[in-house]
Amino acid sequence: MRPPNGAPSTTFLALAKPLPRRDETEAGQAWLRDYLRREGVPAEEMLPAPLRLRKEAERLAESVPVMSSEQEVREAVV
Q1: Residue 78 to residues 17, 29, 56, 71: CA-CA distances in angstroms?
Q2: Looking at the predicted structure, is the pLDDT value of residue 9 above 70?
Q3: pTM of the model
Q4: Domain residue spans in the chain?
Q5: ∠33-36-39 over CA atoms, to 5°?
Q6: How far apart (Å, rounded) are the C-alpha atoms in residues 10 and 36?
Q7: Would you say 70 and 77 are in contact if contact means Cβ atoms under 8 Å apart?
Q8: How many C-beta atoms surround the C-beta of residue 60 within 10 A?
């Protein structure tokens, strides 16, 4: 492999990074975790709809009692 733009080969090799080691069972989902992290997508977005709804209901059950107005509750639910 040739260094780009005629850069010295020692500089080019110093910039190279080794690929992370992954076992076979982890490699199948590693690309997805890396993609989510890179794009800033919360992992919760990848959950099945019933589980996402259950988590949302739990979050609302915890936060609604401390809200002081009906308007706050409406905004949280929407």
Answers
A1: 45, 32, 11, 11
A2: no
A3: 0.50
A4: 24-77
A5: 145
A6: 33
A7: no
A8: 14
